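Check out a protein:
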Amino acid sequence: MGLMDFTLRRLAPAAGATTLAAWAGMTTLNDDWDDYFLTSNNNANKASSESDTEPERIVILGSGWAALNALRKCASPGKSVVVVSPRPHFLYTPLLASSSVGTITLRSACEPLRALVERAAQSATSATFVRADAREIDVLGKKVLATTDSDGMELELSYDKLVVAVGAQPNTFGIPGVMEHGLFLKEAEDSAKLHARLLSNLEKAAALSHQGDKYQSEIDRLLKVVVVGGGPTGVELSAELADFAHNDVAKRYGADISSRIQIVLVEAMPRILAPFDESLAAVAVEHLVSKGVDVRTGTAVTYVESQDVTLAPSTPRNATPEQRAAAAAAARSEETGALVWAAGIGARPLVKKLARSLGQTDMRGLKVDGSLRVEGADGVYAIGDAALSGFAPTAQVAAQQGKHIGRAIRDGVDSEFAYDHAGSLCCLGSDNGIAQLLAPAGSTSFNVWDALGAPAVGREGDERAVTGKPAFVLWRSLYWTKLLSASSRLSLGGDWMRSTINGRDVVEPVLQRTATIRPPVESFGTELRRNNTIRLVNKTDALATDPADGKRKKRFWLF
């Protein structure tokens, strides 16, 4: 007993100090100290807000990196916040590749919004989530029109400040068949569909393998996966697929099936991983090839059907007719069991519609000034992939922009956005990865990586290349700290441990959600009828924007 008491007295303070240090480190890394300690600007704004009679109406469109970071920072006294999104969860997009092969569960990649909104409601005058699709923005009347279901249930939300953070959607570049037959990796449902397709094809191939030589070509088709897009998403998915084939498929389906799996990574540009230094991209190619991935650069998809894809040499935009003809002549069709499209993103319809109404000619996003205010739209901000801000469409940029705008709304002061690039990471599976880390002269990280012999990369030579297991540990550690709750961190850590010990999940997911009939508006947080800033009114008159046929729709107003 004495020894145990002595041990506890010694270990408890050390454990407490370690936990406190870890929390302080994560808080510093994520730039979240103002969640606990108010700044002078915030204190002044709090005092002024408490004396105001009407709270400022804040509408945030989206539930991704940019939107939720804006919500966390702007939730304060005197603010009535409404978050509008068709999905009631935050999706941790860097984990989609892992969830699509069962390395982790989708639960670990999704953070329910309920707790986040309820937490915001404790700080703000009110905070409410509404499950709906934003369809139109009236910048003159400062209203947003959103639809809750296919039956025409519509919401009208009035705002003082509007944050457009709806992200982006896959860009198929008009290639025939991609939208109809391709699989994507943008939403949680996409990961589940890909996981289901992979496991279904494996079961079919295993069954056919017992039927003699009659179905050999069909087995090869079922076991071939084409990943289009050589960016971080496509590379990480290819690496996860290779690990899945070598480890879990070999264990559960046998070497005869695992050895026949073909993974093809297609990239139209001359090399993969354009955001990374060429030397790091070469490391990634070498690792993928060693795992059996067929990496094809300078190759474009020209046509997609349900069971095959047509590939041809890529040509530049200014290609001559002769070059285009030669590429078309070299095109070949290949059978495939699954085609995953990770080749780029494009603006959502809402963003295009608003950009067009503001007279923009570039439809890739909303044009913003240095403070991320949409040009020509008073009180409207655009952040993340929805904005043409001059920064790369990454989660790192979106999160920083969300915090910047949230603080600007909270403090009532717009300021120039300054992006702090920390580096780029890419997981290659098998305890492997690559990292390109910013190391400005004189910083601690610069000295550490130099001491470890990390080579200098980048145009200015101010970045350091880290490869192998250290980069893999960095990838997992950094993204683990970026999760929004302790429960998600525990869930993710448990999934990583489970997949390491017992292998990946091979239970085919089934996701089917029926439309909600009652209540008509799905929401949580501050209740709609108890929220001082929201009024729900049933209006039977036809909308002014209705077609000439006079079709009547149910309409609700949120003020």
